[in-house]
Amino acid sequence: MAAAAATPHSLVLQRSNTAVPRAAAVSSSSLRLPTRAARISCTAVAAPSPSSPVTGAAERGVYNFAAGPATLPLSVLEKAQAELVDYRGSGMSIMEMSHRGKEFDAAIKKAEADLRALLAVPDTHAVLFLQGGATTQFAAVPLNLCADPSDPTDFVVSGSWSDKAFKEAKKFSAAAVAWSGKDGKYTSLPPFDAIKQNPEARFLHICSNETIHGVEFKDYPEPKNKSGILVADMSSNFCSKPVDVSRFGVIYAGAQKNVGPSGVTIVIVRKDLIGNAQPITPVMLDFKTHADNASLYNTPPCFAIYICGLVFEDLLAQGGLAEVEKKNAHKAGILYDTIDASGGYYVCPVEKSVRSLMNVPFTLAKGPDFEKQFIAEATKEGMVQLKGHRSVGGVRASIYNAMPLAGVEKLVAFMKDFQARNA
Ligand code: PMP
């Protein structure tokens, strides 16, 4: 709509070309408009600065390093804004229409098709758009994959999130820790042959990227269990790089880091694993419920799915996930290089070979007071949400797909300057 041409934070008076009944025309005349109808909408539009390319964040005054919900591509937000009030000529927003109508049906089908294209999801796997966050999948996975709570399952505990997944799975399976990084403060991953896999386990579970500790699998262990099932919580590196989906029984991810707003959780599950849920499984947690109903068993998170669809379009337009991975590797590279070249001023505790391209945790050797000062000064400079997770402290820069290179460049320039001023 006309919003694209608006001035910053302006009140936009939009004139519709549609003739309206006389009564409406009368009310518009009181606004001293011509006899045709006028629609008045109040639209706050942050116009891109003419001097800088539309990269996504600086145009809004800040670079947002939040771990999730996280920054989204500006182009996606602008597209959503432009079609918010009147979705593609329907006269309604996508939030206001039936999830069984033709508009939403087209949106969810396109979102699934684009996600399948991005990740080359094979026909052997179903794609589900669910609710309840990744946290709900901590229970749903053992409920769906185990015949009963005595079935053994294996967990690699590489940080807070896989620990939570393990603890929840204990309620619905005989979950065991096949490897734990706790003694090393979750700064490493095991060589795969050090994972003590139970051949009787129903599945092996990993968290592909620990959002709090910044530990990321660069390859995936082979499940040695008799069913050959590998399960991954990919919440914080989903769609950040290509993944061979055929290696996984289940991949699940909350959307709110790389692909959309909170409210939708994406599950990619091998079709032969659907339909065997434990009898106590609530209907909403049974993969079959959602697979049989194309994710429309009940009212889905329509707006969140729509935004994910826009993000998938954007990722495809960038050239797909191989291109996206190159950008992510470059961004993370300059940040880790700055930390490593600081002579110990900044410290990233994570073993180099498993450092996350998405979440970069670091501390300042001079201590928490300097970290506070660092975060406060960075905030003043427009680099926000850099505080480390409350459980570990320090600083964490989350640099998901939508964080522009310019944001990371600004951060490393600030880090060098801060060090020079506070050596
Ligand atoms: N797993 C990982 C790796 C996460 O980062 C998070 C959220 N930060 C979760 C699970 C939990 O996700 P949700 O809040 O969507 O339940």
Describe this structure in words.
Helices cover 31% and strands 16% of the residues. It is of the alpha/beta class and 423 residues long. Helix 2 packs across helix 7. It contains ten helices and 16 strands. The strands form five sheets. The protein has a seven-stranded mixed sheet. Residues 1-55 have low confidence and may be disordered. The longest helix has 20 residues, at 321-340. 4'-deoxy-4'-aminopyridoxal-5'-phosphate binds next to helix 4. Residues 68, 133-135, 161, 207, 211, 233, 235-236, 254 line the site of 4'-deoxy-4'-aminopyridoxal-5'-phosphate (PMP).
List the defining traits of the structure above.
423 residues, alpha/beta, seven-stranded mixed beta sheet, three-stranded antiparallel beta sheet, disordered N terminus, binds 4'-deoxy-4'-aminopyridoxal-5'-phosphate
Name the helix and strand elements from N-terminus to C-terminus, one letter apiece.
Answer: EHEEHHEHEHEEEEEEEHHHEEHEEH
Ligand inventory: 4'-deoxy-4'-aminopyridoxal-5'-phosphate
Q: What is the alpha-carbon Rg in Å? A: 24 Å
Number of strands: 16
The portion of residues forming beta strands comes to 15-25%
The helix fraction, in percent, is 25-40%
